[in-house]
Amino acid sequence: MPVAAGERGRLEGRTVLVTGAAQGIGERVARTLRGEGARLVLADVQAAKVRAVAAELDAVGLTVDLAEEALVAAMAREAVAATGGIDALVNVAGIDAPFRAPSEVDAAHWDRLIDVNLTGTWRCIAALLPHLRERGGGRIVNIASICGLVPTPGVSVAYCASKAGVVGLTLALATELERDGILVNAIAPGSTGDTGEPIPARERAEYRARQPLGFGGAQPIADAVLHLLASSGDWLSGTVMNVSGGYWRGR
């Protein structure tokens, strides 16, 4: 989706690496950022899907598995080599919230969610951090979840713990990296209603009865990412943005 001649978006001249960009929130983030002039590198474990999205958006498409440190490091190197430099990293990739009782959470399930959602996010940051420091700064946005901040009955405790870890990682990194000109923030989305596992009709109706704003889809999360990457985010560091349509009301 090339930007028309004469139109300059809020991210014109910036190069952004988005993980989990083959579908859902990641794809919506990619389309929104491209619409504002960003040059993109899109990465996902779904090779064919991410290549298709990348081709449509005139972006670089890469394959990565967040569970494999060597593959994440290779992705970062390829992203830099293909573009000449990355200005921002948006960590969307992860395993969606599974519904599982605590008694059903075995070691394999726990390890998988922590490894991909939390450690995988860190692997991406660690792989790109030397480059961002060398460039003299940049932006990192981590997609956490409202499940990592407030009780969410039925959602796997492993998922909740992984996303709470992403919040903690964000706050710790923000403290450490501000002096390097690197701003680190997170977004805590609520249920989008149209990404991840399909929600049965009865549960959708019950959710709307509790939450007057209903499901917001992926666009509000993409808009929040844009806000953090554009000049509007120049004075934001260590922020956890509540984008939950009223599911969580507070700080």
Automatic annotation (TrEMBL):
Pfam family name, one: adh_short
Gene3D superfamilies: NAD(P)-binding Rossmann-like Domain
InterPro entries in alphabetical order: NAD(P)-bd_dom_sf, Sc_DH/Rdtase_CS, SDR_fam
Keywords: Oxidoreductase
Membrane spanning residue stretches: none
Domain of life per record: Bacteria
GO process annotations (BP): fatty acid elongation
Annotated coiled-coil segments of the chain: none
GO MF: oxidoreductase activity, acting on the CH-OH group of donors, NAD or NADP as acceptor
Family affiliation: Belongs to the short-chain dehydrogenases/reductases (SDR) family.
Name listed for the protein in its UniProt record: NAD(P)-dependent dehydrogenase (Short-subunit alcohol dehydrogenase family)
